[in-house]
Amino acid sequence: MASEKKYFYGPVPSRRLGRSYGVDIVPFKVCTLDCVYCQLGKTTAMTIKRKDYGPIEPILAELRETLAEGLEADFITIAGSGEPTLNSRLGELIDGIKKITDIPVAILTNGTLLYKEDVRADCAKADVVMPSLDAGDEQTFQKVNRPHRDISIENLISGLCGFRDEFAGRIWLEVFFVEGLNTEVEQIAKIRDAIELIRPDKIQLNTAVRPTAEADIKRLDAEKLQAIAARLGPKCEVVADFSLGHHGRGLENKAEDVLSILKRRPCSLNDICSGLGIGRNEALKYVTGLQHKGIIHSEKRDGRIFFKVN
Length: 310
Ligand code: SF4
Known about the structure:
Helices cover about 35% and strands about 20% of the residues. About 5% of the residues have low confidence. α1 packs parallel to α2, α2 runs parallel beside α3 and α8 packs across α10. By secondary structure, the chain is α/β, with parallel strands linked by helices. The strands form three sheets. Strands 1-2-5-6-7-8-9-10 form an eight-stranded mixed sheet. Strands 3-4 form a two-stranded parallel sheet. Strands 11-12 form a two-stranded antiparallel ribbon. The relative contact order is 0.13. It has two domains: about 240 residues, Aldolase class I (TIM Barrel); about 60 residues, Winged helix-like DNA-binding domain superfamily/Winged helix DNA-binding domain (Arc Repressor Mutant, subunit A, Orthogonal Bundle), CATH 1.10.10.10. It binds iron/sulfur cluster. The site of iron/sulfur cluster (SF4) has 10 residues, from loops.
């Protein structure tokens, strides 16, 4: 039987990465941005200061254990319930992973700290870096991403350009579109200008197919996203999962799935991820919603958190 996981989750199917084995390295929800479309809800700890969030060895020990059980994954993905480059041990973690497996390492980041030399050096240890860019001008950046006061679109774009100059691996840039916020012709032209400077290997377009931090966020339809992809050039592809249905129908169904698992037995977040084949952030969204509605609660047992039906 597979051992219980504390740090890793999955492998979960990912449209961008295939089978992704994820590790969350910052607490909920520490971030440099407070994007209107964030699926995790509002940023509760906004910072640009990197911090030591605890030793790396237990994370590596868990990875060794899973590999011994026969882990099959296309990528080990470093993410977080926030911005993973805020963890000052990121480089140490990638070095450790590289010593024990050949599975490629991807980092999901909002890219805002790449203007810092130490963050660029840490990210350069990965095989694929997946930053975000939802605006090419300051006004749109403020509206969509609501950044920390010390971050501007200028330092985001120049950080991404500096990283491109130093990094020999792959950069897959995600652009998230919100109808009416960053979809004007001039806004898209500015995003295209920034992309030309950044020179990513791929550009992946997404939109709000899941419920977001702000209730009135509108997604683009598939045709409009495809039309934008054509404007942004041949390296551009649409990765939004429209099969989730309009207005979060997917979320409702998944929340019910989470509840039916919890009705059978109390589960940790990792149990829910493995049971439903979803990522940690997504699972967290459902349990937080069920907790707010007073349907479930959490309990600490042997140092681990379990969720139970009330
Ligand atoms: S979408 Fe990502 S970058 Fe934006 S607030 Fe949420 S966690 Fe932070």
